[in-house]
């Protein structure tokens, strides 16, 4: 009997690997001799680096980089333990590790000033390590500079009408006159960049980066208008370029507005491909190979609700398991509104792990025990099908 355990992390409580270990422990009480295949998962957001490193036996690299406020911060990225289909080693970078909103105190949040420079420093460090395949997870950013800071860190020259380098931050894009990418990191042209992106917003306008994501980063209505105009100007300058290495018209593409316009920057200037995060993860960790001969697949995340079917980890895992008609069970910290939407998509059953009304502190501290107990009960019920046969 083969059981694949492919959960996401339980935020603020357990990593994806710790969740998988707890589920395995519970199932082993009932099926001690089963073959357990643990594949830590993520959907491109927070925890993606750790999950993919754990799933492939890779390692974490820590670096001091420029934070969103221009001051040094400790950041990290992962190098996967197995090569990709082309034999290249892969680096996984979470944009938030270097330019995340959590790195900016609430009283200092100002997307006119915050920069993605540190993301570029992480990319450059990976290139210096010999990496030629990068997976970049967007989300959780404090920035609204369309990746301009990232490009500056990689060697691009963004200059104003006087020929001086523009300042860092979203507001400075309004002063941009020309961009020269000839001095980019020499290895960037040989690197394949996949971007985990789960939003479809364009760069500008009422659904753009500034209007939709600016408020959570500290932008007032006046700042939103200023930032939107700056992004539009940035796109116009790029679209005037004659370089064959720049992709034109990306500002209208789905996902261009992700992470303060970073989606636009990586598509236009780094020839990156945007894909749903969970699809990138499932492909990279070769989940299909593990599921094709499985008897049961177990997945989960901290909360399963009506939004889970829109690109979250349990839905991504379910889609893979369905290819091989493998029954799939979801385990969650809690079930929210319309959680049964994933049942309608083909999941066999979903279970919450909280046994009683508890404080949040208690729920988080007891997560591993509750998860193991729930997994054991699920295994016990599943074992009845074998007894009946």
TrEMBL record:
The keyword Transferase applies. Keywords: Kinase, Transferase. Belongs to the glycerate kinase type-1 family. InterPro entries: Glyc_kinase_flavodox-like_fold, Glycerate_kinase, Glycerate_kinase_RE-like, Glycerate_kinase_sf. It holds the Pfam family Gly_kinase. This is Glycerate kinase. It comes from the Bacteria. GO terms for molecular function: kinase activity. The gene is garK.
């Amino acid at each position: 009997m083969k059981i694949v355990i492919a959960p996401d992390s339980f935020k603020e409580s357990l990593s994806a690997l710790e969740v998988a270990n707890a589920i395995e422990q519970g199932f082993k009480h009932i099926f001690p001799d089963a073959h357990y295949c643990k594949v830590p998962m993520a959907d491109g957001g927070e925890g993606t680096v750790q999950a993919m490193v754990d799933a492939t036996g890779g390692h974490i690299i820590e670096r001091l980089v420029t934070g969103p406020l221009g001051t040094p911060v400790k950041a990290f990225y992962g190098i996967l333990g197995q090569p990709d289909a082309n034999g290249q080693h892969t680096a996984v970078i979470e944009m938030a590790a270097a330019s995340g909103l959590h790195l900016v105190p609430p009283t200092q949040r100002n997307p006119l000033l915050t920069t993605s420079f540190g993301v570029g420093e992480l990319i450059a460090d990976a290139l210096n390590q010999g990496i030629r395949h990068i997976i970049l997870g967007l989300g959780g950013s404090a920035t609204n500079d369309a990746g301009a800071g990232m490009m500056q860190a990689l060697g691009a020259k963004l200059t104003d009408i006087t020929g001086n380098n523009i300042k860092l931050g979203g507001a400075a894009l309004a002063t941009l006159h020309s961009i020269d990418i000839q001095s980019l990191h020499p290895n960037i042209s040989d690197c394949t960049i996949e971007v985990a992106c789960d939003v479809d917003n364009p760069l500008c306008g009422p659904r753009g980066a500034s209007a939709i994501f600016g408020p959570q980063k500290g932008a007032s209505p006046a700042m939103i208008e200023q930032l939107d105009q700056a992004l539009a100007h940035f796109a116009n300058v790029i679209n005037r370029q004659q370089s064959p290495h720049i992709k034109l018209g990306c500002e209208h593409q789905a996902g261009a507005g992700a992470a303060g316009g970073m989606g636009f920057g990586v598509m236009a200037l780094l020839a990156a491909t945007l894909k749903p995060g969970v699809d990138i993860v499932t492909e990279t960790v070769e989940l299909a190979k593990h599921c094709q001969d499985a008897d049961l697949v177990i997945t989960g995340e901290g909360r399963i609700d009506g939004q889970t079917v829109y690109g979250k980890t349990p839905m991504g895992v379910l889609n893979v398991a369905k290819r091989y008609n493998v029954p799939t069970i979801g385990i969650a910290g809690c079930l929210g509104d319309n959680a049964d939407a994933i049942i309608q998509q083909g999941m066999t059953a979903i279970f919450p792990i909280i046994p009683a009304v508890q404080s949040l502190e208690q729920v988080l501290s007891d997560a591993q025990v509750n998860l193991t107990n729930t997994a054991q009960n699920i295994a016990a019920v599943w074992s009845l099908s074998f007894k009946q046969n």
